[in-house]
Specification:
heterodimer, A: Aspartate Aminotransferase, domain 1, Aspartate Aminotransferase, domain 2, 15 strands, B: Aspartate Aminotransferase, domain 1, four-stranded mixed β-sheet
């Protein structure tokens, strides 16, 4: 009996009763359990031995692909040397080395890293750091975090409060105070009912008014995902983030890019900051940083922030996590980032991403594709009943969910939501891999349309 | 001012010693025409003998009983009277001692209403920027008044704010009617994005008060707000502390839109300033949900249902009814608005607006572009002071209605007993003041 067959027994309600998944109602899940056993390259297999193409790199994570020998060896070597030391009494060499490498690959003077375990932790660290920064630079009133509706910044309390998807918060209200939300640059369905470029990027400019109303003396930072996943790969016009940079500078507000999904090559450059040519004050990153070989994330800060924490006792960052800057995770991060750099994976993301967009354009003949957006290998598709009027499908049709689930049945993992789907495959994919993925998507859309 | 703490510690305030009708007098026996009714408070005029008689009579009977233990006749009678003033359905009245108490109470009743119906998640109140709902912490959380929030921001709740229906400076950069009242649809977008499951109520001043005095949304605005609220099980609270009890020329301002809110807060005009008094009018469906549920409320203050204040409120409402003062507010308001619009012949008058006797004038550096004066030009202060020099009281509108900082305007909210003669005196004073300020700001280099 092979290992996979042995693990097949776990895909039953009896065993699944012991576990809770993310955002999944378990009663639904046990009807169609999806238990993954092993992976290689851009493929994985479930415990029944069924093969899948991973069009989502897990969840925008496995940028170098599965079973990468360089990363595996680095992890194994580190496990043999030093598996753990908390970043409290001291620090391990891999963490220092990783921080140095991050300083090299980031734009501008984002030279100092706070290394943590997950994206939520990175954002929480950033929120606390910006408050302390303002306190230590004579502006103790600045505490609010301005974020955007439809965004996602993590699952922990403050990160959740910054998030902009109502249903992910309402069960946990009251959320933390001081989290305020602006409309995202969702051009396909502009919240201001305007049209780009005639709008002159009103959604960015109007933040000035919002900031004045909220009072700039009370606002510590603006956090944005340069390209937002949760709203449906919402991709701003090129000048949008530049306008935000300017507004932040005018009001002594720090600009945080949440690049947990965007970072490490996903948008066609190492960071989306480079894709959009804007240097934020903080980059929060994770996911692709270690390609998932170990939990790893970081908040990367510019020199003007770092220097505020390098001084008298009492001005240090009063914050910590037991498993932060774990040597094994850092070793995984170093190897993964080196793979991304040396194999020029951001370039591959750009090239293959362009091919993906071209192939998706080809599916427009199916008559339900309203919009295709994104950059590099972060590409979303919004489905509509009528592409001309942009009329959405009735909410109860859950068209995106059905297509996504059907694709999974057909052996393709993509991100799916009621109205849209997204691709975020490993950055090592080839044009041929994309062709295979899009073929499964097309088949799945046809099957769902037949059902409707 | 000796031991008393007033708002501006450095300022020397005129000491008012008496009032008569629409005039007030200071210690130097200087006469001022009160064109703001104190602050949208005085309606029937000062020193009206019928009110003095009613207050004396009640004081001789009983001035105070504890509302937690006893009911009292004036409070019962005032509640009945208010219910007859209110739009149909708003038949339940909670009597309070001030506008902030009223809005804070409405907020808590909204929460209680949802709780009693098993919707514990619905607790947040959506309001608008450029609004004012009171100065206590709950009320200030709802208030879109940047300058007054700053020092207390860490106390304030996460209550979302939408853009105001401020057509003169549309926050969307649009024009009515081609905008299709996008500012109302904004409420639905925010409810949806925030998650309707966390939203208890939407509160708005039907006609904006001191924050942008007189701004009156288009006819479609509140009907659409009502529909949106209904779709998402969100209560609509009309904050009529400034608007209510006749100021806009109808008993309640929201009647101009033909909309029935779930609660109306009222204060100021309710007692014409003869006593601190306010109320929340509660719709039957809200009351019934609470009555069917716990059948109680913890919401109460020492001076809730105060007999003396209630007797005064009752006398004021009866006086206003007997003298048809609400109709006069409508008539004089229309006339006054026309005269204020005439003042746009002066290049610094950008806008004149209002409904009934809640009016405002906005001052700009340039009429065509609507460019505001720099804040440091202090145009609002200059206008108010120059008008006062002419013997007429108007009040500064709250600065910052444009973006939280900039914006010059004055509030004009005369007593309902204003006559044509008073309108002449007010407009003449304003005319002179505007001309003086135009000269002054020019010579000051603005």
């Amino acid at each position: 009996m092979s290992k996979e067959q042995g693990d097949a027994r776990f895909a039953t309600e009896e065993h699944l009763r012991h576990i809770m998944l993310d955002y999944r109602q378990m009663t639904e899940f046990v009807k169609e359990p999806f238990v993954v056993a092993k992976a290689d390259g851009i493929r994985f297999w479930d415990v029944q031995g069924k093969e899948y193409l991973d069009g989502l790199a897990g969840i925008f994570v496995v940028n170098v692909g599965y079973n990468n020998q360089r990363v595996l060896e680095a992890v194994k070597r580190q496990l043999d040397t030093l598996p753990f030391h908390p970043p409290m009494h001291g620090i391990n060499p891999r963490a220092i080395e990783l921080a140095g490498l991050l300083a090299e690959i980031t734009p501008g003077d984002l030279n100092t890293a706070r290394i943590v375990n997950s994206g939520s932790e990175a954002n929480e660290a950033a929120f606390k750091m910006v408050r302390q920064y303002h306190r230590q630079t004579g502006n103790p009133g600045k505490f609010k975090i301005l974020s955007r509706y439809l965004s996602y910044h993590g699952a922990t309390a403050a990160a959740m409060s910054a998030g902009g998807v109502g249903y992910r918060k309402t069960l946990y209200e009251p959320t933390a105070i001081g989290h305020i939300h602006a409309y995202p640059p969702y051009c396909y369905r502009c919240p201001y009912e305007k049209t780009y470029p005639a709008c002159e990027t009103f959604c960015a400019r109007t933040l000035r008014t919002m900031i004045e109303w909220e009072d700039p003396r009370s606002i510590a930072a603006i956090i944005v995902e340069p390209i937002t996943n949760t709203g449906g790969i919402i991709t701003p016009p090129m000048e949008y983030l530049k306008i935000l940079r300017q507004i932040c500078d005018e009001n002594n507000i720090l600009l945080i890019f949440d690049e947990i999904i965007n970072g490490f090559g996903r948008t066609g450059n190492m960071f989306a900051a480079q894709t959009f040519d804007v240097v934020p004050d903080i980059i929060c990153c994770g996911k692709g940083m270690s390609s998932g070989y170990a939990p790893l994330a970081a908040a990367l800060v510019r020199d003007h922030i770092a220097k505020v924490f390098w001084g008298e006792p009492g001005t240090e960052f009063a914050h910590g996590h037991t498993f932060a800057a774990n040597p094994v995770s850092c070793a995984a991060g170093l190897a993964s980032i080196r793979e991304i750099v040396e194999r020029k994976l951001p370039e591959n993301a750009r090239r293959v991403g362009a091919h993906l967009v071209k192939r998706l354009e080809g599916l427009k003949s199916l008559g339900i594709i309203g919009d295709i957006r994104g950059k590099g290998l972060l590409i979303g598709v919004e489905f509509v009943q009528d592409p001309v009027t942009k009329k959405p499908f009735p909410a109860d049709k859950k068209i995106g969910l059905r297509i996504g689930k059907q694709a999974l049945r057909n052996g393709l993992l993509i991100r799916f939501d009621p109205a849209w789907i997204a691709f975020g495959p490993p950055l090592v994919v080839t044009e041929q891999d994309i062709d295979a993925m899009v073929a499964i998507l097309e088949q799945s859309v046809r099957e769902v349309l037949r059902e409707l | 001012m000796g031991a008393q703490i007033l708002r501006d510690f450095k300022k020397s305030y005129p000491v008012i010693v008496r009032g008569k009708g629409v005039y007030i007098y200071d210690r130097e026996v200087r006469e001022y025409l009160d064109a703001v009714g104190g602050i949208a408070v005085v309606t029937i005029g000062h020193a009206v003998p019928e009110i003095i008689a009613a207050m004396t009579e009640q004081a001789q009977k009983v001035a105070f009983v504890h509302g937690g233990a006893f009911a009292n006749e004036p409070a019962i009678a005032l509640s009945e009277e208010l219910a007859t003033w209110a739009p149909p359905g708003l038949g339940h009245v909670m009597l309070l001692a001030g506008g902030s108490e009223a809005t804070e109470t409405a907020m808590k009743l909204a929460r209680q209403y949802h709780l009693e119906r098993g919707k514990a998640g619905k607790y947040r109140i959506i309001s608008r920027w450029t609004s004012y709902h009171g100065n206590t912490i709950g009320a200030l959380s709802m208030s879109g008044r940047t300058a007054w929030r700053w020092e207390f921001v860490p106390y304030l709740q996460n209550f979302p704010k939408i853009h105001p229906p401020y057509c003169y400076r549309c926050p969307y950069g649009k024009t009515y009617p081609s905008c299709n009242v996008a500012c109302a649809d904004d409420l639905e977008r925010v409810i949806t994005l925030e998650g309707a499951d966390s939203i208890a109520a939407f509160i708005a001043e039907p006609v904006i008060g001191t924050s942008a005095a007189g701004v009156t949304p288009p006819p479609e605005y509140y009907p659409r707000i009502r529909e949106i609220c209904d779709r998402h099980d969100v209560l609509f609270i009309a904050d009529e502390v400034i608007n209510g009890a006749g100021r806009t020329g109808k008993n309640f301002a929201i009647e101009h839109w033909g909309v029935t809110p779930d609660m109306i807060t009222v204060g100021k005009a309710l007692s014409s300033g003869y006593a601190p008094l306010a109320a929340v009018l509660v719709h039957d469906r809200v009351y019934d949900a609470m009555a069917r549920g716990s059948g109680r409320t913890t919401q109460g203050f020492t001076y809730s249902g105060h007999p003396l204040s209630a007797a005064i409120g009752l006398a004021v409402l009866k006086y206003a009814r007997a003298h048809e003062l609400v109709a006069n507010a409508a008539r004089i308001g229309k006339l006054l608005l026309e005269r204020l619009i005439d003042l746009k012949r002066h290049p610094i008058v950008g806008d004149a607006r209002g409904t009934g006797l809640i009016l405002g004038m906005e001052f700009v550096a340039d009429q065509a572009s609507k460019r505001p004066f720099p804040v440091k030009a202090e145009v609002t202060r200059r206008i108010v002071e120059a008008t006062l020099e002419e013997g007429v009281v108007v009040v500064p509108g709250m600065g910052g209605m444009i973006d939280g900082v900039a914006g010059d305007h004055t509030q004009i909210s005369p007593p309902y007993v204003f006559t044509e003669r008073h309108v002449d005196q007010l407009v003449t004073a304003l005319d002179k003041a505007i001309q003086k300020v135009m000269k002054d700001v020019k010579s000051a280099g603005f």
